[in-house]
Request: fold
Amino acid sequence: MQTTRLALAAAAALGLLLATGCTTDTPTEPAEEDASTAESGDEWFVQAEYDEQLAQRDIEPEGDPDTPWLQAIEPEWVDTSQFAREGGDATVCFSNASVSNPWRVTGWITMQEQVKVLQEAGEIGEFRTSDAGDDDDRQISDIQAFVDSGECDALIISPSTTATLTPAVETACASGIPVIVFDRGVNTDCATTFIHPIGGYAYGADAAEFLVDNLEPGSTVLALRILPGVDVLEHRWAAAQEIFGDADLEILGNEFTGGDAAEIKNIVTQYLQRGDVDGIWMDAGDGAVAAIEAFEDAGKPYPVMAGEDELSFLRKWQETGMTAIAPVYSNFQWRTPVLAATMILKGEQVPSEWVLPQEPITEADLDDYLERNADMPSLHYAKFGGEDLPGFPDAWRDR
Amino acid sequence: MTHVKRLGAALQGAGTVFLLLALVFALILAINPGFFAAPSLMAFLKQAAPLVILAAGQYFVIVSGNFDLSVGALVGAQVVIAARLIDGEESRTVPVMLVMLAFGIGVGLINGLITTVLKVQSFITTLGMLLVLYGAIRLWTGGAPTGALSDAFRTPGRLGIQTPLFQIPWALLIMIGVGAGAIALMRTRFGRILMASGDNELAANRSGARVDTVRTAAFVLSGVSATIAGILIGGFAGVSAQVGEGLEFTVITAVVLGGVALGGGRGTALAAMAGALAIEALFTLFNQMALPATLRPAVQGVIIIAAVAYAARRRIRPALQSTATPS
Reply:
């Protein structure tokens, strides 16, 4: 009796373990698991991808430079005639991971404005969207609901995490409708097209190379990072480590800030108390101004700095005349998926992997980008690529 | 007699936090004596001031037997509201600060009334308020704050009185003011009723104390402290979408670290504020030690549990002995 009960309990426990083992990994979980290994950077570094992305920076993209969201680097065109559909007014569905940061908010507005144009042109009828709030499980059920409804002529997915969303994307592909994935990727190439800018390695390298080029040998650099365990961010840091490793710079530390301005200012202030900081490398520009202010308040000279194309940073950069660069994770990529959807539904060719250009903003084009975005709020991204849409500037200004 | 004993116990519980604070400062001194030079010490106090002020507000709520989980979201909301309403106009600074104060009081009042009149547990009330504020701000701003703070608004959190050698931050003076106010308030009749309602609600009610009134007032004080903290944090670092996130847990940790019992009725305002200072000192220590960023939360967690457990042991031991003696 005792043994049967024990066996039952063991079986139940095992079942429970298996059940929890099969549940999805939320974005924070891998962060914890990989905390120790991520420190080395090796976990996230793939030499071939790194080499490819760095090379892609120098390749002239195909297409009109005035519409970078339609340009593509070394595209492999695929035939989409099987998806061609008569008449306009297609129902396009979009499963969004979230709008939980200003970068996504900016892009989301751009996408909606682009959709309005396509709706007026009669190409898109209904645009159905769902927001998963950074929750994998919710996004899986969102995608399932779109597939089950049978009413989507095309499905756009911006996945919240890579591994977990893969089966859901595969299900969507299997339903026979064209699937368009953008921003973060998934581990399947079943989608008709996967749209993304060059990527994290190129971003991190742009920032790191600038610091190496503009700092004296032996200078000190502080790396400020948002959080560990997110692939696009880890790739940025991995690339930076690769470049810093070959340079004569002292990396004082790499700190996680959560993108919180107060936290960033605290950390930078403390480093300044310990000694000089000559350069700041950031894996994303959130709170860059707070880092600069820490130098001002401590009465120290401005660092050489790599921020992002967020306007608050660009404005501070112009105001102070500091030596800086703004690497870009092209926000205009939010326009591309809806345009791709209409192309596919017309049976036009699209690149199977649609690599968009990703060029940093430098001293030379800083003034130009600030002028173009003069009316925009400070947490707006300069390379949002929506200036020619009819909703500009009100839709982005009055968000 | 019990009163004396309890006072002794409270002090013992609080003693741990001062011990921890001394220990952390000693370690910082060992690693980097330069930290105690006036300018860097002032920078530390400037940066610690908002958490200390929040701890004072949270202390009132916790000691009366409740929680206020909405403070982090309230701080975030206040900064976003300030940026949007001021929009870079210097002349709007003071009116907007008054609007913020009214908003802070309003949120505290709603928290308090829902908890006391509708008898909803404060954990749920303020958790709900956290979500409401978070969602409302997202809705209002579309996820990205707009506008800008004026220079005048940023003065209290960022600047100070310049002396020949160093700068005395306004934030430090405000912190001392709020701290002194909180300690003085606990010595009044209001403070005693607040403590009594956390210790034994029934007894306090029977003896004619207006428990609901003081508890509601505690939430209002917490709302006011979040407003002041919001002004300082916004002033210190400017607007960002993440401001205030997670502050509620840091501040409750600080108060508990200060030996204030969850559930109320025990602990001093001074120790609660010292708890906040200890947490900030701990962050500084980690930084000085160049501890890997990924390891920090874990180390912080262990230290906090150890400190609170140590305080609890010291508090429980005499009680155990006293029950053992009669038998």
